[in-house]
């Protein structure tokens, strides 16, 4: 007889819960999901945000597209099916960090509304802050130090978001950051203003902002 999910018996109820871990860390956990085109500034913004949160005593973890794809998801490509599986795995990992009381900062193009809805479903809409890191395509191309857009336009990279694969503008974003109009410092401040009430530790969990 082969093993199926019917033969699995999760023991979540026997494990220390999220609230106990948040109490230990003196913070409220949340998943901050940065979505946007390659070159929009997601990773740069995440690094500055993490540094600011760390200086305030918060424990964080950045999950970045390139790092994940060279590790956990190294077996995935960029087909629609593989993009979906990429986000599914990332969302499950994020949920684990969430239940450890850690503030997770995700930097992923996550180009379609279906993919972003998958993340919301797995993580929970009340525990996910979606941030649209928005910059025009031509601006993203000028920032392309890796030369990916040039390669995509020459046909050397297939299924490249923004060139040969679509990016759907988010419909359920909590914050939009125009990185072509605002500095990193201004952008980080805007995010902090939104998330600090969510993550500052109180004996009573902070209300969810939507």
Number of beta-strand segments: 5
**Uncertain residue ranges:** none
Biggest sheet statistics: 5 strands, parallel
From the spread of the alpha carbons, the general shape counts as globular
The H-level CATH homologous superfamily of the domain at 35-135 and 169-198, spelled out, is: P-loop containing nucleotide triphosphate hydrolases
The radius of gyration is: 18 Å
Task: Provide the CATH top-level class of the domain at 35-135 and 169-198.
Answer: Alpha Beta
Helix-strand pattern: HEHEHHEHEHHEH
CATH architecture heading of the domain at 35-135 and 169-198: 3-Layer(aba) Sandwich
CATH topology of the domain at 35-135 and 169-198: Rossmann fold
In order across it, which strands form the biggest sheet?
2-3-1-4-5
Q: Could you characterize what this model shows?
A:
This protein has a domain at 35-135 and 169-198: Rossmann fold. Helix content is 41%, strand content 12%. The protein has helices at 18-25, 42-55, 65-69, 80-99, 113-123, 137-142, 148-153, 184-199; strands at residues 31-35, 60-64, 103-107, 128-134, 175-178. The longest helix is centred in the middle third of the chain and has 20 residues, at 80-99.
């Amino acid at each position: 007889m082969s093993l199926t999910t019917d033969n699995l018996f999760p023991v979540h109820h026997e494990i220390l819960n999220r609230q106990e871990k948040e109490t230990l860390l003196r913070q409220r956990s949340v998943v901050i999901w940065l979505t946007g085109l390659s070159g929009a500034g997601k990773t740069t913004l995440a690094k500055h945000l993490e540094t600011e949160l760390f200086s305030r005593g918060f424990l964080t973890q950045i999950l970045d597209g390139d790092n994940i794809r060279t590790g956990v998801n190294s077996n995935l490509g960029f087909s629609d099916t593989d993009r979906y599986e990429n986000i599914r795995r990332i969302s499950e990992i994020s949920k684990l960090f969430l239940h450890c009381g850690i503030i997770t900062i995700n930097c992923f193009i996550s180009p379609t509304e279906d993919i972003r809805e998958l993340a919301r479903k797995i993580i929970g809409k009340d525990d996910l802050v979606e941030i649209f890191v928005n910059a025009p395509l031509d601006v993203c191309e000028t920032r392309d130090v890796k030369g990916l857009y040039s390669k995509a336009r020459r046909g050397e990279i297939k299924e490249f978001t923004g060139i040969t694969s679509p990016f759907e503008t988010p419909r359920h974003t909590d914050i939009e950051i125009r990185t072509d109009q605002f500095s990193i410092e201004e952008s980080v401040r805007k995010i902090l203003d939104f998330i600090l009430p969510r993550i500052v530790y109180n004996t009573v969990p902070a209300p969810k902002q939507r």
